[in-house]
Amino acid sequence: MTEILINLLSVRAIVEILILWYVIYRIFLFLKGSKAVYLLRGLIILIFSFFVFQKLGLYVLSWLLTRFFAFFLILIVIIFQPELREGLIRLGRRHLFPTPLKREEVERTFKEIVTACVNMSKKKIGALMAIKREFGLKNIIETGIILNAELSSQLLENIFFPSAPLHDGGVIIDGKTIVSCACLFPLSDNPNLEKTLGMRHRAAVGLSEHSDAVVVVVSEETGSISLAVNGQLTRNLSGEDLFTILKGLLQRER
Question: Which domains does the chain have, with CATH numbers?
Answer without folding.
Answer: 2-93 (no CATH), 103-253 (3.40.1700.10)
